[in-house]
Amino acid sequence: MGEPRSVLLISPGYPAEMPFFVRGLDAAGARVIGLGDQPADALPETSRRHLADYVQVRSFADEDAIVGQVARAASLLRIDQVESLWEPTMLLAARLREALGLPGMSVEETIPFRDKERMKQVLDAAGIRTPHHYSATTGAGVRDAAERVGFPLIVKPIAGAGSADTHRVESYEQLDRVIPSLRRQPVVSVEEFVDGDEFTYDTICAGGRVLFENVCWYRPRPLITRQLEWVSPITLALRDTSVPHLAAGVAMGRSVLRALGFESGFTHMEWYLRADGSAVFGEIGARPPGARTVDVMNYSCDSDLFQRWAEAVVHGAFSGPVVRTYNAASIFKRAQGHGRIVRIDGLAHLLAEYDDSVCTIDLLPIGAPRRDWLRTLISDGMVIVRHPELSQCVEIADRFAAELQLFAG
Hints:
Elements: E1 6-10, H1 18-27, E2 31-36, H2 45-50, E3 53-56, H3 63-73, E4 81-84, H4 90-100, H5 107-114, H6 116-125, E5 133-136, H7 139-149, E6 153-157, E7 167-169, H8 172-178, E8 188-192, E9 197-206, E10 209-214, E11 216-219, H9 222-225, E12 234-237, H10 247-260, E13 265-273, E14 279-285, H11 293-301, H12 305-315, E15 327-332, E16 341-345, H13 347-354, E17 358-363, E18 381-387, H14 390-403, E19 405-408
Parallel strand pairs: 1-2, 1-4, 2-3
Antiparallel strand pairs: 5-8, 6-7, 6-8, 9-10, 9-11, 9-13, 11-12, 12-15, 13-14, 15-18, 16-19, 17-18
Helix pairs in contact: 1-12, 3-4, 4-5, 5-6
């Protein structure tokens, strides 16, 4: 038996899910080398326990320095592949692969996953329905694009993640109010607003083959949940992805992967289902979904998808079958009021009814300061529930959304 594969994993301590991917690689038999911008003793304990070695860099902002530092380290540490699961370091991972002569996504292949305008251009050329879109670098360019797209429209950064800094705009007057907030963004995308329900298409792939696919249903769509503080956002991983109304989105997701030439790793795509049954592409990242959605997916199939991802990128196959047996949903809670959490209502009676369906309760404790709900989807805590029947899972999730209340003061 040969030596274990040596995997350089960028940012093994952040975001919060990264330690579980470190653990997954170790469990898959890889020798895991971390590359991060924090001292080794500041890493989460799970990451420290499963890392074989660690390279600390000064800052992820200086990619040239990192490429040189890793090239020097590679003379002492064998590196067989480079992996990144955090969007801001995707291009760095590609540069390191090219510098070290390693397989995996190149810079050219990575750019469409980071530049939303380039992404849509590639998919347009492949005949995939995307929102009508234009890029802009100035306020005048945004106004010109708005004239071509028409209202309502969406304005968002071309390299953002999720719905951060995304604006729905209804008129030129509203656009004039939004433009000043875009000054921190060098390039933005101005695109058609697509009316419909929003879903994900998430995969783990190996060698261009889809080993696992998942569809989540956002209730309501993220653009709404980022505008209304009182809403409890729900992300629901669906047990049955073969139902007719999802067919167009799943087929489109597979076509997107082919058009972008994706080979191995996690992907997270968002798409819209219109009232006429047609699917419209939203965006895709070569990374897992955030906001603990991998946990939700794990509960839907009683598996460890952190480790399944590691098996895919290290061995090219899963060690065993992954079968969805549940619908599973996360419900994010936002406290009423400001300051520190002073009261939690409704939990006891909900647990009395649904205890067998509750997988996780992770709410801020009494006395903890509120989080900024505009900066983190997880907000002031979350609950994960599951049930084999979709109607029951929806009912339970809606009950927790409506009846579990946190108060701050």
